[in-house]
Amino acid sequence: MARRITALRAGATLGVMTLLLIAGGCAQTPPRGDGSYTHDWPMVPSQPANSTHQADSKAIGRSNPGSYAMDADNSAEGLVSLPVPPDYTRMAELGNLFDRIRLGYALPDVENPIIDQQVRYFSAMPDYLDRTFERADRYLYYVVRELEARNMPLELSMLPIVESSYNPYAYSRARAAGLWQFIAPTASRYQVRVNWWQDGRRDVVDSTRAALDYLSELHLMFDGDWLKAIAAYNCGELAVQRAVDKNKALGLPTDFWHLKLPAETKAYVPKLLALARIVDKPDRFGLEFTSIDNKPYFAQVEVGTPIDLRVAASILGISEPELHALNPAFNRWATDPDGPHHLLVPYASAAEFAQAVTELTPEMRMPLLHYTTHAGDHLESIARAHHITVPTIRALNSVITSDVHPGDDLILPTSTIAPLRAGLIIEGELPARSHHKHSYVVRHGDTLASIAKRQGMTLKDLEHLNGLSGKTHLTAGHHLTVERPTTASTATPQRTAKNTTVRPQTTTTTTPTPRVVHYAVHHGDTLRSVAKRFKVSITELKTWNKLHRSSLQAGQTLLLYMGPERDVGG
């Protein structure tokens, strides 16, 4: 993967080559003064950063040099001590981002055999760690700076490793997506956009803002205990609170290590702490990480109106996959006509790109077709058939003041409705699903939250279906009613052609088009368990992935070709 874009290369397509002669200075890191924090991930044009919400951070850091220190005066008064932020000026002078992360450690370095087990597990997979940090190269600096802005422990920058291996396209069997693995209801709760054009759960900036908002709220909810907050991020705040209440009632300790939580959660927190320990002193475990520059990788550029991503890549002189990796939220080849209208672009190219896009005509921004209207057409039906909005049609056709008449010549976008990349799982285009109810036998360690997640349901729906409240204690062997989604026929949008309006038709054929699922292998997965989970054969798995051996490695990505009749998430 190219580490950094250092020069703007000429793009010759779609008539934009001459625009690259426009001069413009690169966006600069804002100056720092006496060590106070200033965002240094740039916005072009310059504007205030959009996520400086300060969390009430009560975590007490370790006493290593450079880590958060106790405020002695507050402590003496019996108040909850606040960590003193590190010297950001000193941090900015470091060449290696890993060094910066180590200076911001604030979680307790606990001696626990479960952490030791996870350390051995990760340190035995140097190839996996290399691949993961290579992907993280694009995003890690931004995540670190956002954590610093909120005075949060920098170990949290490794949480996307546990969640997604820093793969923004990761999509779990529970239908969680993106670096931070949000499910749709949580995304909605934190105003993350998910629609036909984009899935904000994959958006680097928006998902990071939402994840840190959520973690900050959990931190406050659990009285400054970061380990319980991190556990709640995995299994839900209600599950952790029930475990705390139960221990209180029994007179037992209520720290994370003594709580009765789902097995996945009991391993989740140790995984993060293990990764932090490995990054802190990799040589202790026989590892050496490639340095990651302590500099911004990308800048956010306002583009004003919709733009075809291929045009943007051409202007920038970078590959389309590289632009996709910086802007993984988009489902289509064009940005959402309803906004927000910005792109993440390589840092060094941001100023030139910002200038160049101002010179683009609508035809240059987005390839267009001419559509002649027919009797019965109106703006809403045309917009629906071409998967655009009425305001988009009006913007491209300024002469349109009311509705259209037969014979009108309209300019419409073309070739933008196809999925952005092969195999991309688009939430709104998963097969239409109905539900059938079946019985689930509660197992030891289950909570309503963990069962809901496993069954692809919301916690609220599971509670409502069984007449339970969030504080209900589950007993192993108890039967719950759950709803398992099943596939039904779905309306399939048809590709448009010049001078024709093709409306969505209902698919009734019995030969569905396979859907590609990218599955990230987890610790403990085997070919047999993955085949069983996705209801495929081991032979199919081996054939699809050209596997010559039966063992799998955590972090490895498997391709599965699923018919829509198979009930899986990915």
Largest sheet composition: 3 strands, mixed
Determine and state the CATH class of the domain at 72-285.
Answer: Mainly Alpha
* Rg calculated over all Cα atoms: 25 Å
Shape: globular
Query: Helix- and strand-based class?
Result: alpha+beta
Mean pLDDT: 74
Characterize this entry briefly.
This protein has 570 residues and is of the alpha+beta class. It is built from 22 helices and eleven strands. Strands 1-2-3 form a three-stranded mixed β-sheet, with helices on one face. It has a two-stranded antiparallel sheet with strand order 4-5.
Per-chain topology:
Layout: E1 43-44, H1 72-76, H2 88-92, H3 97-103, H4 113-123, H5 126-136, H6 140-149, H7 159-164, H8 184-189, H9 204-221, H10 226-235, H11 237-250, H12 263-280, E2 298-302, H13 309-316, H14 320-326, E3 342-346, H15 350-357, H16 362-365, E4 368-372, H17 379-385, H18 390-396, E5 409-413, E6 433-441, H19 448-455, H20 459-466, E7 479-487, E8 491-492, E9 505-506, E10 515-520, H21 527-534, H22 538-545, E11 557-562
Parallel strand pairs: 1-2
Antiparallel strand pairs: 2-3, 4-5, 6-7, 8-9, 10-11
Helix pairs in contact: 4-12, 6-9, 9-10, 10-11, 10-12, 13-14, 19-20
